[in-house]
Every structure is written in C-alpha cells, then in structure tokens.
Amino acid sequence: MVLRPRRQSEVAVRRQLYAREQAGDETHLPNLFQRYGVRSIEHYPQELLATLRSVAPHDNPDPNVVLLTPGIFNSAYFEHTFLARQMGIEIVEGRDLVVHDNRVYTRTTRGLKPVDVIYRRIDDDFLDPLAFNPDTMLGVAGLLNAYRAGNVAPCKRYRDRCR
User: Fold this and answer.
1) CA pair distance 104, 151, nearest whole angstrom
2) Is 159 exposed, middle or buried (0-12, 13-18, 19+ CB in 10 A)?
3) Digit-coded pLDDT (tens) for 2-11
4) Cα-Cα end-to-end distance for the chain
5) What is the H or E stretch that residue 17 is in?
6) pLDDT tens for each residue of 15-51
7) The CATH number fitting domain 43-155, selected from 3.40.50.2300, 3.40.50.11290, 3.40.50.10090, 3.40.50.300
8) By the 8 A CB rule, do 140 and 131 touch?
9) CA-to-CA distance for 87 and 134, rounded, in angstroms?
10) Measured between alpha carbons, how far is 118 from 139 in angstroms, rounded to an integer?
C-alpha cells in the first residue's frame, strides 16, 4: 500500500517512483527493486477502489466514490490527483460537497450527485466544522451527521479504518 509521506524527501522519492512506475522504467536501478522486495504499485489504485466500493452504504452496486483533498497547497496533492485519476474518480474539496437531509452530494454542472464513499485525505479536525473545528474551510458541514445516518462512508488512509 502507498504510505502518506511524512517528510519532503520522501515526497520527492515517491513522486520519482510514481513517474518511473508509470513509464515502466525500472531499469535505471538494476535489481534494486528485487533486492529490497519493493512490490509494484501498478494494481494499487484498482485494489483501493474495490475496497472503497465494498464499504458503500445500502449495498449500492455502483457507488459514487470521491477523493476529498485539502487542495492544491497540500504537500500530498500530487498523490491525491494521481490516485483519483488512476481510480477514475472525482477529486473534490470540501466546497465541492454539500449535505442535504443527511445525504452527501457533489456539486456538478448538472445539479447535485449523491456521494456514497469519501476517500478523505484531510485530518479529523477539519472534516466537519459542525462537529470539530468550527473555523475550518476544508471540510463539509453536516458530514458527520450523514455518516451517523448511514448514508456515506468516509474512509481515511490505509492505516485507518472507514469511519
């Protein structure tokens, strides 16, 4: 699984690995990947998407999954956009989502579209200004109520559980 980088140097290394993996260029470091047991990340986005879809509420056969990011100024935004593109899902910020009657929707040019699963890449304190930090502009007002009502599954990084 892909880890959330903690240091800038790790971010740079991860970006290089993503770029090289996408280009299929593992010849630049002969045998390094095999020697250290580095596994390919080629199928990771599809496996992550399958996992996210499996936690959708109401046994929806075709759930709408989105990736919630703090935005372009976040140090991991590159990873967020990469994952969203590879999974074929929308990348959204808090301002792109709205809660009505304990249901989460994404705003589109065709109106509101229901959201079933949110792969959230923001910290708990910023998730819902009604429940946590009231000054945040990153989260979605009412998201926690939608979760409590069983209408959305907000999932965090791999080491955390869906909650």
Assistant:
1) 8
2) exposed
3) 444 444 555 6
4) 19
5) helix 8-23
6) 666 666 666 655 556 577 777 777 777 888 999 999 9
7) 3.40.50.11290
8) no
9) 32
10) 12
Give the chain's radius of gyration (CA, Å).
Answer: 17
- The contacts of residue 125 (CB under 8 Å, 6+ apart) are 132, 133, 136
**Full-model pTM:** 0.76
Cα(25)–Cα(156) distance, integer angstroms: 30
Matching residue, tokens 């790790």: 10
| Residues counted in the chain | 163
DSSP labels, 44-70? HHHHHHHHHHHT-GGG-SS--EEEE--
SS3 content of the chain, % helix, strand, coil (to 5): 35, 15, 50
Residue 34, SS3 per DSSP: helix
- Report the distance separating Cα 115 and Cα 135, nearest Å: 24
Helix, strand or coil, per DSSP, at residue 153: strand
